[in-house]
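Technical note accompanying the year-one report. For the benefit of new consortium partners, we illustrate the data format agreed upon in the data management plan: each record pairs a sequence with a structure-token string. No post-processing was applied to the example shown here.
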Amino acid sequence: MIRDLVQSDRQNWEKLYIDYAEFYKVPMNNEILDTVWSWLFDKKHVVNGLCYETEGKIVGIAHYRTMPRPLNDKYIGFLDDLFVNPNFRGKKIGQKLIMALKDIAKSNDWQVISWITHSSNDTAKKLYAKLAINTEFDLYELKRN
């Protein structure tokens, strides 16, 4: 079952989010966890959260948000994070979460949903190639220091 994250999901969500950070070799701490969790439930909905639940346990999460696309004077959806418990991979949970986002896009009048993944994440890229178009844009980041 796919549904919005709720406050009582914190413990299950936290485990998945820590595993997600570990997958990308990103340090995780309680401050980051608290901040992201608060974003999911603030009134501005900085970030929205979906989850895939089976047998009372969350095994997949997706964080997404609305983002302006100035060249088209429209808003789009942006998928920030998608993670499925490795023990539940191969069951199309990631695909189901993305398709749920497609429904959300329709209800929000987003023309597209965009996301990025690491160039080495071949498993995810195989899934994404089945569902979406690789725009072939490269991502750059300018560090402030």
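Partners are asked to follow this layout when depositing records. The domain at 2-131 is CATH 3.40.630.30 (Aminopeptidase).
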